[in-house]
Amino acid sequence: MLLEQLSIHRLRNLAETKLTFSQLNVIYGDNGSGKTSVLEAIHYLALGRSFRTHLASRVINYEHDDFILWGKASGHSIGLQRFRSGEVQVKIDGEKAKKLTELLEHLPLQLITPDSFNLLTGGPKTRREFVDWGVFHIDDSFYQLWGNCKRLLKQRNSLLKRKASYKEISYWDRELVHNAQQLSELRNQYINSFNPVLQGIIERFLPDTEISINYYQGWDNKSDLTQLLEKNYPRDLTLGYTTAGPHKADLKLRWGKVPVNDALSRGQLKLLVCALRIAQGVHLQSLVNKKTIYLVDDLSSELDEQKRQILIAELVETGAQLFLSVIDKQQIIQQTSQYHTQMFHVEHGVIKQD
Ligand SMILES: Nc1ncnc2c1ncn2[C@@H]1O[C@H](COP(=O)(O)OP(=O)(O)O)[C@@H](O)[C@H]1O
Ligand SMILES: [Mg+2]
């Protein structure tokens, strides 16, 4: 996929603009000029949400009640309007979209920011989302399965809070187990096929580091989920929620026996996050021929010149479209000089093509 054009109206501090992108795009400018806001606009158009806030009202320019984005992506026209009231409208090729998820299929997107360590140092949710990104784009049944699991778990938890009998709960558990097993199988298959791609990139990014990646499905893989739900029932009843299931899935990344967040430096962790995200894009393309776009905010954070070089080369190699932000274009000019690069200078919210 390729985001060919983007127009931005009333988003953050950005002046109204219409941008034409190429394969490699660099956005540079001083702190507070609006670089991250440009990436945020692309993210919003691709996913229907920001990566900086859950509140749409923060993204709308202070003086207005809505923002509008319009983009041309691989020939499709995508429009999104978000109001302060919370209402959102999405149009794809002139047709009103029924669900925000219709957006997701058009622009598979990977984001790398200074907070991306979270994937390795934070809770399991971001790692689950990481796995599910891959499964979602590869398998059409994922969305429904995961939706079913979430709905059934919510229902189960409210039964637990009402102190329902095990008999009543077990009636729903049959459907939960059925969906959970299929979902888990998809996640497991995904990680197994993804791992060799990842290892190839790790060899170049972090030579001499043996990183293993293991998928934990959310319950002990030697246990039968139906029996486990029954066994856990007294505890779940006391806690008021379900303690084992696909909502607890996680990825364990280790260097030898040690979790990577205890073993690697911050610079190495950042490279590992980049390797994970690049591997997902490469893998997606090889499986279903969909191209991912990459947003890298504040490229220089935690990376020295040599690491920046490796990262940019690897990203360019994927053939994906890239949007990189830096404060000073000198930080990147050498690394990008051999590629056709479109530079955008942001100054007080005004974006100019170099
Ligand atoms: N809703 C908003 N309306 C107008 N300006 C905003 C809004 N939210 C943030 N800003 C301003 O936008 C500017 C650009 O922020 P940002 O994109 O994070 O800059 P950069 O990434 O270049 O450092 C900041 O100065 C911030 O104060
Ligand atoms: Mg920024």
Distinct helical segment count: 12
Element-by-element helix/strand order: EEEHHEEEEHEHHHHEHEEHHEHEHEE
Q: In terms of per-residue confidence, which ranges show pLDDT below 50 for 5 or more consecutive residues?
A: none
Count the E strands. Answer: 15
The H-level CATH homologous superfamily of the largest domain, spelled out, is RecF/RecN/SMC, N-terminal domain
Strand content: 15-25%
Separation, N- and C-terminal Cα atoms: 24 Å
In total, how many domains does the architecture comprise? 2
Second rung of CATH, namely the architecture of the largest domain: Up-down Bundle
Task: Tell me what you see in this structure.
With 354 residues, this protein is α/β, with parallel strands linked by helices. It folds into 2 domains: 1-108 and 291-354, Rossmann fold (3-Layer(aba) Sandwich), CATH 3.40.50; 117-290, Up-down Bundle (Glutathione S-transferase Yfyf (Class Pi), Chain A, domain 2), CATH 1.20.1050.90. It is 46% helix and 22% strand. The chain has 12 helices and 15 strands. The strands form 3 sheets. A 6-stranded antiparallel sheet has the order 2-1-4-5-6-7. A 6-stranded mixed sheet has the order 8-12-13-3-14-15, with helices on both faces. Helix 5 (124-138) runs parallel beside helix 10, helix 7 crosses helix 8 and helix 7 (166-205) packs across helix 10 (266-288). It starts with a strand and ends with a strand. The model has no long low-confidence stretch (mean pLDDT 95). It binds adenosine-5'-diphosphate and magnesium ion (MG). Adenosine-5'-diphosphate (ADP) is lined by residues 12-13, 29, 31-37, 58, 60-62.
